[in-house]
Amino acid sequence: MVVCPHDLVWLDALTAIEIEDELPEWFYQYWQIDLPVVVRRDYCQNGLIPVGIRGRLRSQRLAIKIKSANIIRIVTPESLVASQAIKQLPNHFQKAIMILQENSLPWQWGIVGSCGYQLATGKSVLTKNSDLDLILRCPNKENHEKFVELARLLDHLPCTVDVQIQTNIGGFVFKEWMRDRRVLLRTNQGPLMTENPWFIEESCYENLI
């Protein structure tokens, strides 16, 4: 079973959770077995998958690991782009997603964050301050003009859109790349600063932040 960062996964039992400390009180008040957990970018080993669990409040976030054998369902960010539940989103989110669909982006892309969670679960977690969080799969370095065109498109959408670019090595924030051409790349080994998030020499991992 292959899972990727930002995938939503469902478990068959609470015993799937591996954690050294006690679970926080809010976990038992809010999380239920019929709700998904979100795959995190971290080192995987011994059949354990790093995931995050969200609570009702923004401050309620829990990083744990789960047994891969207990995963019974996976929803990818890309699959949510075609979700019928988009019709139940606030109008500005609907319009933004429709514009992105019509523009036939040259990359695979998906919906993550609060919007993705709401689409996958039907739970109303979006607020008036919520942004539209997206990921773009970009395994190879593209001509910079393609990124310029993407930035122009995002600037004209009816809501604030935060894009994370996913390379074969890790993920980085698109706006940071366009502004600085040097970004914090989050890898499975840890975060590092780089000017080329598509290629990292082994020696660079010695400078993990």
Automatic annotation (TrEMBL):
This protein's UniProt keywords: Nucleotidyltransferase, Transferase
Domain Phosphoribosyl-dephospho-CoA transferase MdcG C-terminal: 84-197
Domain of life where this protein originates: Bacteria
Any Pfam family: MdcG
Record domain Phosphoribosyl-dephospho-CoA transferase MdcG N-terminal: where: 5-77
One of the record's GO molecular function terms: nucleotidyltransferase activity
Annotated InterPro entries: Holo-ACP_synthase, MdcG_C, MdcG_N
Signal peptide: none
Matches recorded under NCBIfam families: malonate_mdcG, PRK01293.1
The name this protein goes by in its record: Phosphoribosyl-dephospho-CoA transferase
Organism: Frischella perrara
